Amino acid sequence: MVYFFYNILTFTVFLVLKFLFLFVKPVRKELKKRKRSLNQIFSKTPEGKFVVWLHAASVGELDQARALTETIRKKHKNVFIIQSVFSSSVKESSFLDPLADVYFYLPLDLPHAYDRIFTHFKPQVLLVMAWDTWPNLLKTASRKGTKSYLCCASLSSQSSRKNPLVRSLTKASFRYLSGIYPSHELMAKEFEGLVAENTDFLVLGDTRFESVLGKLETKSPNPIFTEFVSDQKEFLNKNKPILLGSTYGVCEEYFTAYLKTHTDDAYYWIFPHKWDASRMEDWIPTLEKYGTVGVFSKVKKGEGFPKFLLFDLMGILAFAYQYGSFAYVGGAFTHRVHNTIEPAALGLPVITGPKISNAPEAIVMQELGGLFQAETEKEFVQKFALLVKDKTLREKMGKGNRNFVVENRGASDKIYNRVFANAQN
Questions:
Q1: Which fold has domain 214-407?
Q2: Angle at 129 between CA 123 and CA 130, to 5 degrees
Q3: What are the TM regions of this chain, as residue ranges (predicted)?
Q4: Burial, 27: exposed, middle or buried (Cβ in 10 Å; 0-12, 13-18, 19+)?
Q5: What is the pLDDT of residues 10-32, one digit of tens each?
Q6: d(CA 158, CA 212)
Q7: Are 51 and 123 in contact (CB under 8 A)?
Q8: Beta strands in 28-68 (DSSP E)
């Protein structure tokens, strides 16, 4: 019965989108892009290979899927990988990654939306990352004989899926899963009452830890940044800057509030989420009231180290954390927190805003004492000041975060062994 009402809802959404398609250009462009990405996958065929379909909601979950795909390819040579994503925040350029054989945007979750995909590719296994369990996708997989698994499973205590109206749909769709593998013991308890008796349920970890550690261990930052830290090696050995990563306007406002009420001798590296030249030009005079300010692209060799260094070069934040004392990670005062695993992997304590329910690793880090979550400007200033002053606290939190990341390495192997042992049965 719950599926009946859900399908009425999805069909209503479908009709609304069809109407908007006629009159709203961005909607038309988006729907055309999604249809194009789906249609082009049928030019390829598995040709007798073992077919695995991985689905990720957005960018973070795609990182989880990629780490798992790497393990699958290493251990299962004759495999064909299908990778779907839902969010348009995943750019089409990501589809050029050769890890998967085909990529596409998931269609609207109508009852027969996936029939052609299952008929053409005949996937033996469907691996859904984290939480994006579309009811009709799981039901169709079951009807077509495909075993489905929820990997790196996460569910926050504030999740809408615990709402009585949604809970029954969640429980109904979860019964089509052959296995649910939470990312952490603290996540496992949130699934209480939702898991069917015959569903394999075991904490196997989060593959995103491997993705982050692999990136830090095997890749290099922009050579310009490498040269910069080499030139500043002696200074950085004595002075660990505080990093503000992925900042938005509100983050910068709250940091300014801290500067107005506190004096320190710290140095700051600030990485805006997007370099907005006009916003930075407006903010720089304010920062100059509290110390010298530099912009990374304009820093010249031999110049003194500014108190505030604003980075206008993208793609280096993950590597910059290794030089810091602690990190503020942005996003959580606006819509959702950004990557907290990167600073944690390098042994830094973390402070964020309130919206961390999308990031199970951040929730666990908070529970373990390695992450401060600030709800308001006042709370941000208080907790930020505490981390600036208390070196012992920073070291304790940072050590805990590093251990948390390292201990969670190996999730891909665990998931592979569990799923593919079951998938053969």
A1: Rossmann fold (3.40.50)
A2: 150
A3: 6-24
A4: middle
A5: 999 989 988 888 888 898 999 89
A6: 27
A7: yes
A8: 50-56
User: Exposed (0-12), middle (13-18) or buried (19+): which is 299, by Cβ within 10 Å?
Assistant: middle
CATH code: domain 33-207+410-423 is: 3.40.50.11720
Rg, C-alpha atoms of the chain: 23
pLDDT digit string (tens) for 83-112? 999 988 888 888 888 889 999 999 999 999
- Bridge pairing between strands 242-247 and 179-182: unpaired
Length of the chain as a residue count: 425
Q: How far apart are CA 415 and CA 131, in angstroms?
A: 16
Domain ranges for the chain, please list them.
Answer: 33-207+410-423, 214-407
pLDDT digits (tens, 9 = 90+) for 46-86: 989 999 999 999 888 898 999 999 999 999 889 999 999 99
Which residues have CB under 8 Å from 7's CB, separation 6+?
110, 111, 136
Residue 180 and residue 174: Cα distance in Å, rounded?
9
Long-range CB pairs of 22-26, under 8 A, 24+ apart, other chains included: none
State which amino acid sits at residue 193: G
Distance in angstroms (rounded) separating the CA atoms of residues 112 and 30: 21
Sequence-distant (≥ 6) Cβ neighbours of residue 309 within 8 angstroms:
241, 267, 268, 269, 270, 293, 294, 295, 296, 299
Strands 293-295 and 308-310: parallel
Q: Which residues are catalytic?
A: 61
Q: Is residue 123 helix, strand or coil?
A: coil
Q: Is-same-fold flag (33-207+410-423; 214-407)?
A: yes
